[in-house]
Design a protein that fits this description.
The protein is mostly beta strands. It is built from five helices and 20 strands. The chain has a single domain, classed as Porin, CATH 2.40.160. The protein is 12% helix and 45% strand.
Amino acid sequence: MLGLSLFMRKSVQTCLSAVLGVSFLVFLQVSRAEESKHVDQAQDPSFEEFMLRGQSTYINQYKPSFASALPDGPNSLVRGAESSYTWTNTVFFGWRAQRDLEFYFVPEMNVGIPFSALAGMGGFTNGEVTRAAGSRPSIYRQKLFLRKTFNEGDLTEVVAADVDQLKGLVSRNRWVLTAGNFSNLDVFDDNAYAKDPRTQFMNWGNMTYAAYDYAADARGYGWGVALEWYKENWALRLSRMTGPKLPNGLPVDFQIGKHFGDQFEIERSHYLMNQAGKSRFIAWHDRANVANFNDALAYGLANPNLTNRQWIFQARTGDKDKYGLGFNLEQQVNESLGVFARAMRADGKTETYAFTEVDASLALGAVMNGTSWGRGLDVVGVSYLQNKLSAERQNYLRNGGISFFIGDGYLAYKPELILETFYSLSLGKQTALTFDVQSVRNPAYNSLRGPVMVTGFRLHTEF
């Protein structure tokens, strides 16, 4: 395992060095020669020059009281009944400076209250909750980035207009550079059926791999650079991104040469029985000042005068490495039905850097549109999630340790199991009302608590 860790770290760092070098050349090579190959974009209706789009998403969830053989601990999901909500409003600006050079600016307003002050689960039931800023609205810059495309061949593929994408044409073989303030999830793990809690499944274990501790601030965004290479039915992606100054914090650590998150993904498109599908493999590596669980527990046992909330803080004594491997498959079955599977394992020796309290995750699901019952814009989905913890994290929690999102004071370990189903009812081409139910067994991996039933609805519109 140590050898694999060193190999992954050196390989990803080598790849990222190449990314940074190519990125520097990209900024120097926006040349007139390239532009002269094409007609004036203003005369070509296939290319969108400017965009102004928006979205609004309101999610409301409720959980009744549930059984627990333990009293609520410092970071428990509260046993009593609770309501939770989030409301995000986003504006998307895009400008095509040149045919293959685009700029994007995305401001957002959010407001919301999570269950139990955002504690007590590995797989939170609302993927929007990381943006929740309390009952008073907060306005912030979500993204500010450029995208440069280097086409190799004729422009034959249509890039559809989207909230973060100007409509245009690209070559099937191309390089794409993204640089600035954005999210790793804007580039990596682009699953067609389980990606966006604003329109698909709500649980953040369906946004991406639950065990993917990708570098980002507390809202899920960072600064960095990503490079993609598309060749026929293959795609390769690399990135280096900033993380938070403190684990799961909002202030960004701009020492990107010292503290960072690196990603490498391979994607292959395929056809199975004439139906489209994709498979992906991802490797990631974080470098940050995070606590080792064994060190934190040893410190706590040696200093009984300290509260268990201080153990991890005192164990942040130097930079450490964290890594993981994941596999993702999506497959269309017919014109109405698609299925997906995600699995990832992280090393689990250190505390969470920027995402979830999950060290191994599995997600299986299916999504169907309503064509067969005459409601083509409606969507129904069902997914099964299984989250696990490493032996080191289990031992830490069993002995009374507290981490950022979980900690009941004692742990009778079992994997956290979540079943989610939703029905999205179309109210028009750009508006949908969604009903969602999630059943959570062993919340925060504790068999002495739960199960918990969460019901909710979502109103989403785009304009």
